[in-house]
Amino acid sequence: MRVGVVDLGTNSTRLLVADVDDGRVEEIERRTEITRLGEGVDERRKLLPLSIARVRNVLAEYRRELDAQGAERVLAIGTSAVRDAENGEAFLGEVEWSYGFASRLLTGEEEAELTRRGVANGREVGDGTLVLDIGGGSTELITAASRRSLDIGSVRLTERFLLSDPPTRDELDACAGAVRKVLPALGLDSAIGVAGTITSLAALELGRYDPEEVHGYRLSREGVEAQLERLASLPLAERRELPGLEPERAPVIVGGAVIVDEVLRRYGLEELDVSEHDLLHGAALEAAALPEPEEGDAPPGAYTCC
């Protein structure tokens, strides 16, 4: 079955079109647009009209792509920003009605489980392996035995701590301290990293973003430390010009790099494997299990979210 997944993330809105056959996910098309849906949510607990408008513009384009690719089922998933916003469920209802997507608001634990399923698509994930998923609003720490969703993410930490351009040493130390404070004790022997912060760090080392080169790339702790030092020393305008870094991710990449650095330090890991398979691939399996879509009344809250 050909399916589509739309990830309504805190920092980006992502699309995956894939064929699902017997539990295997074959990627057909993948897109990412930085939309900053979670801008201001940490402080106001509400999705703002301008943020919603940016997402809606992207969703219209994604709807056309899904139709062109012949997707039979489409699932839109809401994560950290939508969970935290008072109008998050109403926003999902509007998305479902306006664009014909089935929608699901994931708990942190559900997000973690789908991410692990996505990473495990095409590779074995050992019991002692950490799957690290850094989003804009939350970070998921996923092992065979536990699923933990922490309220630290690249956008959230940037808005709380990294207010100068470039950030000051005191701001960086406060940011790192906030990460260290919430990292639990885990016994680990390896790690796999997913999502934009980690793939961007790999692309920065490579000097370009190529999904085939990034997937399976080994990112060392020394390399993360070097990139963090480099990124934190540059003003935003110069970070936007770095080869391999998407310009719209530049405002929050330092906060994300702080999380990667602190995770590797906390668990004594010398490197992590970078994976392009992530939450989208796990959600594709869920999309394939959806019933055939039916037309009906507008979901509760549609037209009232903004």
Keywords:
306 residues; 43% helix; globular
List SSEs in N-to-C order. Answer: EEEHHEHHEHEEEHHEHHEHHHEH
Round the mean pLDDT to the nearest integer and report it: 90
Strand content: 15-25%
Approximate helicity band:
40-55%
Structural class: alpha/beta
Shape: globular
Which spans of ≥5 residues are poorly predicted at pLDDT below 50?
299-304
Main sheet overview: 6 strands, mixed
Number-wise, the strands total: 11
Read across the widest sheet, the strand sequence of neighbours is 8-7-6-9-11-10
Task: Walk me through the structure.
The chain has 306 residues and is an alpha/beta fold. It is 43% helix and 21% strand. The strands form two sheets. It has a six-stranded mixed sheet, with helices on both faces. A five-stranded mixed sheet has the order 3-2-1-4-5, with helices on both faces. Strand 2 (12-21) and strand 3 (24-34) form a beta hairpin. Helix 5 packs across helix 13 (279-288), helix 6 (154-160) packs across helix 12 (253-266) and helix 10 (221-233) packs antiparallel against helix 12. It is globular, with a radius of gyration of 18 Å. The protein starts with a strand and ends in an 18-residue tail after the last helix. Residues 299-304 have low confidence and may be disordered.
